[in-house]
Amino acid sequence: METAIARHGSPEANESLIHRGTNQSGMRDHNERLVLSLVRQHASLAKSDIARMTGLSAQTVSVIMRELEEEGLLLRQAPLRGKIGQPSIPMALNPEGAFFIGLKIGRRSAELVLIDFLGNVRSMLQHSYRYPAPRETVEFVTSGMKKMRGELTPAQDKRIAGLGIAMPFELWNWADTAGAPREVMDEWRHRDIRADIQAQCDFPVYLQNDATSACGAELVFGQASAARDFVYFYIGAFAGGGIVLNGRLFGGPTGNAGALGSMPVPGPDGKPAQLIDVASIAMLEKALSAKGVDGSYLWTSPQEWGEIGAELDDWIASASRALAYAIVAASSVIDFEAAVIDGWMPLAVRRRLVDAVIAAMAAIDGEGLRLPAVREGSVGIHARALGGASLPLSERFLIGSTTISRSA
Length: 408
What we know:
Blueprint: H1 2-8, H2 11-18, H3 28-42, E1 44-45, H4 47-54, H5 58-70, E2 74-76, E3 91-93, E4 99-105, E5 109-115, E6 121-128, H6 134-150, H7 154-157, E7 160-167, H8 175-178, H9 182-190, H10 193-198, E8 205-209, H11 210-221, E9 230-235, E10 239-245, E11 248-250, E12 264-266, E13 272-274, H12 276-279, H13 281-290, H14 297-300, H15 310-331, E14 338-343, H16 347-362, E15 373-376, H17 383-397
Parallel strand pairs: 4-7, 7-8, 9-14, 14-15
Antiparallel strand pairs: 1-3, 2-3, 4-5, 5-6, 9-10, 10-11, 12-13
């Protein structure tokens, strides 16, 4: 936070620049999102706090918060006494105010998650496979949603505000790497998965790149909010990432900004290679397979891989060097405050990887650059699914912290 204050002024000044409101009646929707975003950020706020942070009149704030309370989106907290005048009454988000579904379509598994308005996971389902097939994926979503919605009360079910899909764009290009039949992967080229799932839903369905969605999960649910500019890496079957600028997910004109898996880095032989070909967990599985070891447990047991040995040590060494070069290269373009690394791996492995990245960066000539702090992500293995769920949350209730793409 000290870096953010140094660059943007005091926290109060920073909030007033980023969260400025308007008293014009035509901007009610913006102001409602503004209030909900601030309450989410601070856990609870009184009307006077919001008026001070936004510049909105006390009357405007009072009207907005009363309406949000009547809609079931905000809850009154215990009054704060001990000050002169009437006690202050903080308002907090109502966990039951809205629900969101997230779908991750990965190269080795799919996940379906249901979260509440606070981001708490209410239900989660997982389906592992050798490669993703469109029909099988839609069947998983159909049965999964039926199960999840059947566990909700009718009142809760009516409050499902949307479903977000997190999946690799142009998935069909990964047929050879994923070891999948090309005719199956080519089905993705001609299928509109968002439309297929939308046909089953009475709420909106959104679509975003999987690694970018994971970055969005870190932004909305994680602890990276102290940094307003950070580069994010998610290490799954294949490495990818995202970029956050000025507290918002940056997708660029085509939604492909932050395609960090394609970044050139030194390969194991010293020749240029893409980050995806060095730092991906698929490379660890390939090394295990070369030793005659079935590495499928990497996908089915991400919380605990057990004792792997030299193959894991070698993968961490090569992946960390590649990530270190990627971070330094990215820092020469944008002055990031932090580099965040998360992935489909046990916490102990993630810690080892981050420590190795920090050590590898120390060996790279960074003269003339202000290198970012490197730290672990705070969302974990389910970041992509939670990122999918964050799409309708951000689109419908928050000030644009994420970039939404409705088609692949």
